[in-house]
Amino acid sequence: MNTLRNGRTDLSTSRIRSAPQTRSPLAIGPVRWDKEHPTSFAKADAMPALPPFAPIPASLPATVPFVGPEQMERARGRPFAARLGANELTLEPSPLVAEAMRQAAVDEARWYPDSTNYDLIDALAPHFGYTAGEIVVGEGIDGLLGLIVRLFMAPGDRAVTSLGAYPTFNYHVAGFGGVLETVPYRNDSEDLDALAERARAMQARLVYVSNPDNPMGSWVSHAAIEALCDAVPSDCLVLLDEAYAELHIDPEAITPRGFRRPNLLRLRTFSKAYGLAGMRIGCAIGHPELIAGFDRIRNHFGVTRISQVAALAALGDTAHLAGVIGSVAAGRERLADIARANDLTPLPSATNFVTIDCGRDGDYARAVLREMLARDIFVRMPGPAPLDRCIRISTGTDAELDLAAEALPEALEAAKGEP
Fold this sequence. Notes:
7-stranded mixed beta sheet, disordered N terminus, alpha/beta, 13 helices, 3-stranded antiparallel beta sheet
């Protein structure tokens, strides 16, 4: 086993295993019922047809929105030295959260979770300035987006988003047979006027916007969000993804507690500032009749008991959250300094990452990304042009950012030499 630059062990011969080889179902040969051994199958001359998928999933590619770092490590044969590509909180969670989770694992893991998420919603309601009937808890914003698309879109209905915005929304729209309409970013920020205009032109059922934005880190004012709610068709629902809201740097851009519009759903998560991405827990906030609709389709035991306990403890540890916010702000400044030291341009950010303009085209930025990965630094980049001139680096620990600072100039130099 080898040792990486951060002192971690290269586990390519132990923990990191090659992906298992898969066989086509046809490779097992034809089968028939074996009367003497009813739990097994025996070969026969004729094989039943493989059951087909339903038409919508049959038309989709067998892909998910993200290739995770663990999957990349398996393909590489070694772990990353710094995990700075998934916008996770690399700091440890609150000690109160850790203790609550340990206790719940011992005392409560054998029980099914509370399907109503009662205690957590009871705490979230005053925290956000709403009633309990205006909040539903789900498996993170990703899971809630799937429920929302299923609840409000029929096959052929249209949804509007920005070209290059969070792709999991697009994934769910396609998965339920919807039609996705996109508008370009304007000056590296979502163009809410263009989103509203396209929603009106297409009679869209859903409009998705994130504030602050991923992948660019930019933000819009609350007044712009309010105007968007007023500008879309009367039966169009605005989805406001506020995953990074706790980390915001502009008070004017934060949608106030208790803000209500009948055509608005606010989405919040414990994945970012609270450091619970692995727990998969978040909430949607909106009109009580819309929220009640989730009970028609949601996975009622989908949010685990330990996730509920962890979120409740995290919500109560305001001192730890304040420390996280300060640490993330310092990390943004450090990343901006690293970018400028390499003659790159850091974009303003209200999130736990900094998007860095590499100063050339997408091919060059992709080369920089490859070279960072080759140096064991996991980072990502936006997809479509002109956003793809950038790479995106999450805030991390001092040690992780030291590794990024060491690798970036090497990656930039190597990228210049790529064909």
